[in-house]
Write a structure and sequence with these properties.
- This is DNA polymerase III subunit gamma/tau.
- It comes from Butyricimonas virosa.
- With 198 residues, the protein is mainly alpha-helical.
- Among the domains are: 76 residues, GMP Synthetase, Chain A, domain 3 (2-Layer Sandwich), CATH 3.30.300; 31 residues, no CATH class.
- Helices cover 43% and strands 8% of the residues.
- It is built from 7 helices and 3 strands, in the order H-H-H-E-E-H-H-E-H-H.
- It has a 3-stranded mixed sheet with strand order 1-2-3.
- A hairpin with a 2-residue loop joins strand 1 and strand 2.
- The radius of gyration is 38 Å and the shape is flat.
- The protein starts with 41 loop residues before the first helix and ends in a 5-residue tail after the last helix.
- The mean pLDDT is 76.
Length: 198
């Protein structure tokens, strides 16, 4: 089937101009200049923007406008356990409502060996709380103690006698289990009298 007056290109009604075919540039009516502009690909635009930023940064450096401020403490002042305890008390005073961190930082006195500070906490929950604020606490201690070479370690408290972790008894069940370990007859008494643990 053949369509009359069809030569493979669609014609627009009225104007007589043809629609561009893929790969061709659009035709320009007579008397007008071609304002067809090829856009560079996005990756090329990104490269141009990065080069421009690099040039601006280089100009700022040459003019002395880009001065990077170094806030690190470079001193190596000596400090004692009393100094660390005082710094921790000051840090705890700046905390608003985080009582778990306050308890963790004040429960045990810190251990100091050279520039290494070791803080001990009672359980894994408090360990995770102090680990969350570790960078802030380390920065605070470095400024307060005027020593940028401090290493801050946080660990769960261990009993010094036998090396076992000190267990805190918080709930009634914890206390009951502790008494059963000391004296198994407590468990028999509980069963005999039908007692419940709250």
């Amino acid at each position: 089937m053949k369509i009359a007056d069809f030569n493979g290109k669609f014609q627009q009604s009225g104007g007589g101009t043809t629609a561009p075919v893929a790969g061709e540039k659009p035709s320009v009516p007579a008397g007008k200049t071609n304002t067809y502009k090829v856009e560079p690909p996005h990756s090329f635009k990104l490269k141009m923007a990065m080069a421009e930023t690099r040039e601006n940064l280089q100009i700022q450096r040459e003019e002395g406008g880009a001065k990077v401020e170094d806030n690190r403490v470079k001193a190596q002042s000596e400090f004692t356990v009393a100094d660390v305890t005082s710094a921790l008390e000051t840090y705890v005073a700046t905390l608003r409502e985080d009582t778990a961190v306050k308890i963790a930082l004040t429960s045990h006195s810190p251990k100091v060996q050279g520039f290494v500070i070791t803080l001990e906490v009672d359980n894994d929950f408090l360990l995770s709380k102090v680990t969350d604020i570790h960078p802030y606490l380390l920065s605070f201690l470095a400024k307060r103690l005027n020593n940028g070479f401090i290493t801050l370690n946080v660990q769960v408290y261990m009993e010094p006698e036998n090396g076992e972790e000190k267990r805190r008894l918080f709930t009634a069940k914890d206390k009951f289990d502790h008494f059963v370990q000391i004296n198994p007859a407590v468990s028999e008494l509980k069963a005999l009298f039908g007692l419940e643990i709250e």
